[in-house]
Design brief:
The complex is a heterodimer. Chain A is mainly beta. Chain A is about 0% helix and about 55% strand. The chains are: A mainly beta, B mainly beta.
């Protein structure tokens, strides 16, 4: 979506290393920031989300951090495993959750 | 619960043919969505339905029509298919109308228009 940009488009990491992907949004009114994971041949699935009143949220090996001043939020994956290889989409309202173009993450065994 | 189901899984059409993609959800969600996914383009919203009886255009509605048949079902129709509509189509649903809720996606329909 035109309101949301993701970088880098492709990220390769060694198994066990950390991966960080960043999402930049344009609308300062956005208040909900999800990350979706899409495995090959499947539909996207929500893995973590954060609301604007919180700066960071963790769930086991994944975390999301939000910088409202700079209008970006990031997905952090620690101790990466082969099953983390997927395309990750961020999204931000308004515009009915405009999705970014996706980050391809490749975990090299 | 099956979640969000889509039929068919695969379809090949000739230019000018018509078809309807079916979507159903069993989570009692109010909102339903149709997206298309093309390489390098991410997910683009075609149409959505905030609640039963309402539909609205998304980012790329041209060439498509939708019907919210009831709370469970939301269909997408291509009246005269074009090669530019070759894509993977995803249906999704969420609990409350609006942007701030988890969307549940179906497995997708892979459509090729020759």
């Amino acid at each position: 979506g035109e309101n949301v940009e993701q970088h880098p488009s492709t990220l390769s990491v060694q198994e066990g290393d950390s991966a960080v992907i960043k999402c930049t949004y344009s609308d300062s009114a956005s208040n909900y920031f999800p990350w979706y994971k899409q495995e090959l041949g499947k539909g996207p699935q929500l893995i973590i989300d954060i609301r604007s009143n919180v700066g960071e949220k963790k769930d086991q090996r994944i975390a999301v951090t939000l910088n409202k001043t700079a209008k970006h939020f990031s997905l952090h994956i620690t101790e990466t495993q082969p099953e983390d290889s997927a395309v990750y989409f961020c999204a931000a309202p308004p515009n009915r959750l405009a999705f970014g173009k996706g980050n391809q993450v490749v975990v090299i065994p | 619960n099956a979640g969000v189901t889509q039929t068919p899984k695969f379809q090949v059409l000739k230019t000018g043919q018509s078809m309807t993609l079916q979507c159903a959800q069993d989570m009692n969600h109010n909102s339903m969505y149709w997206y298309r996914q093309d390489p390098g383009m991410g997910l683009r919203l075609i149409y959505y339905s905030a609640s039963e009886g309402t539909t609205d255009k998304g980012e790329v509605p041209n060439g498509y029509n939708v019907s919210r048949l009831n709370k469970r079902e939301f269909s997408l129709r291509l009246e005269s298919a074009a090669p530019s509509q070759t894509s993977v189509y995803f249906c999704a649903s969420s609990g409350i109308a609006g942007e701030s809720n988890e969307q549940f996606f179906g497995p997708g329909t892979r459509l090729t228009v020759l």
